[in-house]
Amino acid sequence: MSKKYVYFFGGGKAEGSKEMKNLLGGKGANLHEMTNLGIPVPPGFTISTEACVHYFKTGRYPEGLKQQVEEAVRRLEELTGKKFGSTENPLLVSVRSGARVSMPGMMDTILNLGLNDDAVKGLAKRTGDERFAYDSYRRFIQMFGEIVMGIPHRVFEELLDKKKKGKGVNLDYELDADALKELVEEYKAKVRELTGKEFPQNPQEQLWMAIEAVFKSWNNKRAIEYRKLHRIPDDWGTAVNVQTMVFGNMGFDSATGVAFTRDPSTGEKVLYGEYLPNAQGEDVVAGIRTPKPISELEKEMPEAYKQLVEIFDRLEKHYRDMMDLEFTIEKG
């Protein structure tokens, strides 16, 4: 029996808890804890820090990891009713790093993994929104191309800016489905030109390339410098969190944001943070669009805001501390 490296969470039950920070990383441990509390956490699984440590010591994945990841993906497909690479109802995931202590912005995140030339059509058909599907695909190619395939961020940004100028628009969300389809092809051509390889179309291959990139991000220059500065040991490694996607970019009834359960400067019990409608997580931190204060969410999406307040209250009572959280609203 091989050692356990993969811990599943979803459907109101999780195999981990907040006490397992050293094994599951801070982010992973809290995803498991919140799932067990009944908070609406999108289902997923965490690959332990021990798998990362083994990878760096030996240069390969530990025995049993591949089978455990495949089993976790199968469980995700069963729970969500979606399938990796499906042309009808594709399963899309995010892949994120998560060390046992917070290292903001030091390691890497990939969203919308699982999209390819066929699955994007399935997503468009399933949601009835072609623009959203191709927006998600171009974002995925950009993040995967940069983080996994080593293509500089500016290369994609230049193509995006050129497309906006050519179409006479200023903001990303003003590009229509046809413009985004063209952009996807331009992105893929650029990947081919700069790497000599086609953009990977097999979701399983995409997943393993992303897992390896997250492990390697533990030893990127930024992360090493940060650890030196904060005296974080090099041999802790990072966990990997693979989680079903929830989409904040499905239109102006969707949003993504970050918030504290209290005002961090005064301690006043009031939601404090910001959000962006019709956006994905990286838009909030990239500074391309100006986020709105969270107080406006109450006017724009009162039901979603109410649910957010209830969740924040429950979490503060449970953890007995001020919390900061990331959230996404899909069709709120």
Can you characterise this structure?
With 332 residues, the chain is of the alpha+beta class. The chain folds into three domains: 162 residues, ATP-grasp fold, A domain (Dna Ligase, domain 1, 2-Layer Sandwich), CATH 3.30.1490.20; 83 residues, Up-down Bundle (Acyl-CoA Binding Protein), CATH 1.20.80.30; 75 residues, ATP-grasp fold, B domain (D-amino Acid Aminotransferase, Chain A, domain 1, 2-Layer Sandwich), CATH 3.30.470.20. It is 47% helix and 14% strand. The chain contains twelve helices and ten strands. The strands form two sheets. It has a six-stranded antiparallel beta sheet with strand order 2-1-3-6-4-5, sandwiched between helices. The chain has a four-stranded antiparallel beta sheet with strand order 9-8-7-10. Strand 1 and strand 2 form a beta hairpin. Helix 4 runs antiparallel to helix 5 and helix 5 packs parallel to helix 7. The longest helix has 19 residues. It is globular, with a radius of gyration of 20 Å. The mean pLDDT is 94. It comes from candidate division WOR-3 bacterium. It is an enzyme of class 2 (transferase). Keywords: Coiled coil, Pyruvate, Transferase.
